[in-house]
Amino acid sequence: MTRAVLFDLDDTLFDHHLSARAALAAVHEAFAADVAFAEFERHHAHYLEEMHLEVLAGRATLEEARRERFRRVFAALGLFLAPEDVHRAASAYRDGYSGTRQAIPGAVDLLVHLRKSIRVGIVTNNLLEEQRGKLRVCGLDPYVDVLVASEDVGVSKPDPEIFDIAVRRLGVTAAESVMVGDSWQNDIAGATAAGIRAVWFNRTGGAQPPLPSGVKSLRTLAPPDDAAAVILSRD
User: Fold this and answer.
1) Is 13:140 a contact under the CB 8 Å cutoff?
2) Last residue of a domain, which of 57, 80, 99?
3) Cα separation, 79 vs 72, whole angstroms
4) pTM > 0.85: yes or no
5) 58, 150 contact by CB (below 8 A)
6) For residues 166 and 123, is the Cβ–Cβ distance under 8 A?
7) How far apart are CA 73 and CA 22, in angstroms?
8) Number of domains into which the chain is organized
9) Is 188 found in the same domain as 128?
10) In 3-state terms, what secondary structure has residue 225?
11) Can you tell me whether residue 96 is helix, strand or coil?
12) Would you tell me how many other CB atoms lie within 10 Å of the CB of residue 8?
């Protein structure tokens, strides 16, 4: 019997890609319009991942990491901006991201549907307050029983320990839980290693690896009863 559903947050319940792309487009137009957007986006993705690890390790604040990320992006593209312009670019990204935050279509209705009968948890590799803000803005927070963020617990997906923490806080066992997430390595492989059944949220229709026994895939969170049926089914 399934008693709890664990969800990843970014690009599973919260549309991180939409906010990030909108924010990046604004920075590109203001500071790097002579560079092809695809090239700008590629460099940004690289340094975003690089600096995100610094934030999670406690070696940089979110603001410091954002400024350093854009400094590296501009430098890699041969755009040597003054420090105050790098600061302005980082602030523009922050404002653009915050102003476009929204849930993945169907996410709220799905949590409302699930929460009628089971507990709901979030397992995320990010900062606790950052993720709390997303849940609040998107109207998801009333339907989440437990939020486990890597910054808060000191361990990140795909380490099985972060999943163990989540199920303990929910008062269930791994065998009574299911994990839903978009990252094959972090969410699916990580949950499986923790003994938790997994559902891969493949919203973009990416190339699908052979699914291990018990792993299902899901393309959309709507309608809620259909998505819940896939998530909760053990067939």
Assistant:
1) yes
2) 99
3) 10
4) yes
5) no
6) yes
7) 17
8) 2
9) yes
10) helix
11) helix
12) 24
